[in-house]
């Protein structure tokens, strides 16, 4: 038992330090950093930039493991299904071709953002289509408690960035689980 004031303060200090050191591990997953609606100036938008950079680097390096850590399991399953139907396999060349088909992941930052929205762990972006394409490009992501993962990226030729109702409906669709 601690009998002196100095001993009591030392014991309390050690207990407080131990609690502060263990707190980060007890905290659990962090909440989605993006608000219900966002634009590129929103502080949480950096999580999207991080995802796009990780995707671009994994494709550039043709690193399947790194790519798999950037996407949801459902995304990988859908992509594998498409490749199977085409008689191809997930491999480094497929990564480069996939990134090129979507205009390069880091280039998504260059196109105007028609809408950005988040609900619980889901995040959606609707962008103007890449040069030479019509409509918009829709991007669905999932917050896993640590970082964003790509869940879907699709070209939507019949919804245009200036069509507020169409963009709103597309965004709502992206925020629902099981986007195909």
Overview of this structure, please?
By secondary structure, the chain is an alpha+beta fold. It folds into two domains: 1-28; 31-175, no CATH class. The chain has six helices and four strands, in the order αααααββββα. The chain has helices at residues 5-26, 46-60, 64-68, 73-85, 92-101, 164-175; strands spanning 113-119, 122-128, 136-143, 148-156. It has a four-stranded antiparallel sheet, sandwiched between helices. α2 crosses α5. The longest helix has 22 residues, at 5-26. It is globular, with a radius of gyration of 22 Å. It starts with a helix and ends in a 5-residue tail after the last helix.
What's this, in brief?
It is globular, with a radius of gyration of 22 Å. It has 180 residues and is of the alpha+beta class.
Q: What's the assembly state of these chains?
A: single chain
Beta-strand percent range = 15-25%
Uncertain stretches of 5 or more adjacent residues: none
Give the SSE string: HHHHHEEEEH
Q: How is the main sheet built?
A: 4 strands, antiparallel
* Helix proportion range: 40-55%
Provide the number of structural domains: 2
Tally of helical runs: 6
Distance N terminus to C terminus? Answer: 64 Å
Q: Kindly report the spatial arrangement of strands forming the biggest sheet.
A: 1-2-3-4
- Overall outline: globular
Q: How many β-strands, per DSSP?
A: 4
Look at the helices and sheets and give the structural class. Answer: alpha+beta
How many whole angstroms does the radius of gyration measure? 22 Å
Instruction: Give the averaged pLDDT, no decimals.
Output: 84
């Amino acid at each position: 038992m601690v009998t002196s004031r100095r001993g009591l303060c030392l014991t309390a200090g050690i207990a407080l330090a131990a609690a502060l050191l263990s707190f980060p591990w007890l905290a659990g997953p962090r909440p989605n950093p993006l608000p219900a609606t966002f634009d590129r100036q929103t502080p949480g938008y950096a999580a999207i930039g991080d995802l796009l950079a990780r995707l671009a680097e994994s494709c550039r390096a043709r690193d399947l493991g790194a790519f798999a850590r950037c996407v949801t399991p459902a995304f990988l399953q859908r992509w594998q299904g498409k490749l199977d139907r085409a008689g191809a396999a997930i491999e480094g060349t497929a990564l480069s071709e996939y990134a090129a088909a979507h205009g390069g992941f880091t280039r998504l930052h260059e196109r105007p953002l028609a809408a950005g929205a988040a609900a619980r762990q889901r995040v959606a972006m609707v962008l103007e289509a890449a040069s030479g394409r019509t409509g918009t490009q829709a991007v669905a992501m999932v917050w896993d408690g640590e970082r964003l993962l790509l869940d879907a990226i699709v070209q939507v030729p019949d919804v245009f960035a200036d069509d507020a109702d169409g963009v709103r409906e597309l965004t709502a669709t992206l925020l629902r689980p099981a986007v195909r």
